Amino acid sequence: MERQQDYVLRTVEERGVRFIQIWFTDVLGIPKAFNITPAELENALEEGMTFDGSSIDGFSRVQESDVLARPDSKTFQILPAKAGVSPVARVFADVTHLDGDPFQGCPRQVLRRQLERAHDKGYSFYAAPELEYFYFATGTSLPQPLDNGSYFELTVADKAASLRRSTVLTLEEMGIPVEYSQHEDAPSQHEIDLRYTDALTMADTVMTARLMVKELAQESGVMATFMPKPLAGVQGSGMHTHFSLFEGDVNAFHDPGDEHGLSKVAKGFIAGVLRHAREITAVTNQWVNSYKRLVPGYEAPIYVSWARNNRSALVRVPLPKRSRADSARFEYRAPDPACNPYLAFAVVLAAGLKGVEEGYELPPEADANLYEMTPEERMAEDIPSLPGSLAEALAEMERSELVADALGEHVFEWFLRNKRAEWADYKLQVTPFELKRYLSL
Question: Which residues contact 414 (CB under 8 A, 6 or more apart)?
């Protein structure tokens, strides 16, 4: 650790960094930061920086407000340079109590706790998300797409495509590897797929990537949004995420003797995610708007099932390449890019480990198009749906011992209170749909 701190201090001096941003998130995954100067950096790395936690949503109560931001020196990065501006760096922080104990309201600590559970069982948890988002013109009252492209469309001299490419290059310059990027199915919808790494690093990376996408768009005079469903009548934005467990350097999901190439651990893990899918949906899909995406007809994964090559299923198990048979993993297709990645990864891991620990049996593979099945056919196959609204998802979450344990009492109770308030505000609104449909009746 000392060597890493020395590297950070030396880099700041050699690169002439004038400010270091200390990054963390609130419970909903909204990025927060404060700046320190190089003169304060060594003390910050060794002892942390005190701040008022009562001013951050979901953090401390007023009577116990002070907390510590303890920078994780492994997350130190120089931010992209801007013309005429001195270099700025950032480092993610874990939030602790003043005595050094983990602060229960810190999402990074929530994920750390689940990762330590996995580590105690000999596992490391890896994630690789696919970030979908939209570009829109600014200065308009309604979302105005920049292009009318479709899936994988190759465009020439297109502003949105150029902006996506420059964003990918910026991420690569920051040491964030990108596996793919492409135009998605809806107009002005784009996708950046991040190369897999351990889940804590990936949650930090998602926070960084979202900020870079939005900042570079703003600098180009357009808006980028990770809102799950900004346009009616087209697909929404998801954050399909590939997950795997490793035991050392060995993929714990791989079994060459199994017909699907899946080990007993993989089957138990996937079964756990499926059994608890309805309970964790409020965390992976946390906004009222998230449930405008999770509807039939727009390729959204609303039916709780798994399959190898069936994109109507909630969990997809990709067929590995012959040369990479040990790349066994599963793709969880429910999360959207507006979630808090720390909490989302934590509840998926908790659900999967529960399945492994208790030996859940993997249900039969769904080999039919689930969108074309009738409700009666799905019921006969024991294929439930994800919650249809934030209110339904919160009701499922409130009954879940697994989610309460994974998030901890502090985050669990605050999240429920905050989201119930959001639903109450939403119910008070009279939408254009209602006015158009009912006003003249």
Answer: 27, 58, 105
> Can you list the positions of beta strands (E) in 284-386?
303-307, 313-316, 330-332
Beta strands in 31-82 (DSSP E): 31-36, 49-52, 66-71, 77-78
Following CA atoms 267, 270, 271, 272 in sequence, which dihedral angle do they give, to the nearest 10 degrees?
120
Helix (H, G, I), strand (E, B) or coil at 270: helix
**CB distance 345 to 203 below 8 Å:** yes
Task: Give the number of residues written for the chain.
Answer: 441
Please name each of the domains of the chain with its CATH number: 2-97 (3.10.20.70), 113-436 (3.30.590.10)
DSSP 288: T
Quick: pLDDT tens for 55-92: 666 565 433 468 888 999 999 998 887 766 788 899 99
Residues 343, 416: contact at Cβ < 8 Å?
no
DSSP code, position 195: P
Identify each DSSP E strand in 42-187 by its residue range: 49-52, 66-71, 77-78, 88-96, 124-137, 178-183
Distance of alpha carbon 304 from alpha carbon 383, whole angstroms: 6
Contact 314, 299 (CB under 8 A): no
Summarize the confidence of residues 278-303 as an average pLDDT.
92
Instruction: Indicate whether 259 pLDDT > 90.
Output: no
Is residue 135 pLDDT above 60, yes or no?
yes
84 residue type, one letter: G
Per-residue model confidence (pLDDT) at position 373: 75
Q: What are phi and psi of 315, to 5 degrees?
A: -115, 125
Number of Cβ within a 10 Å radius of residue 385: 17
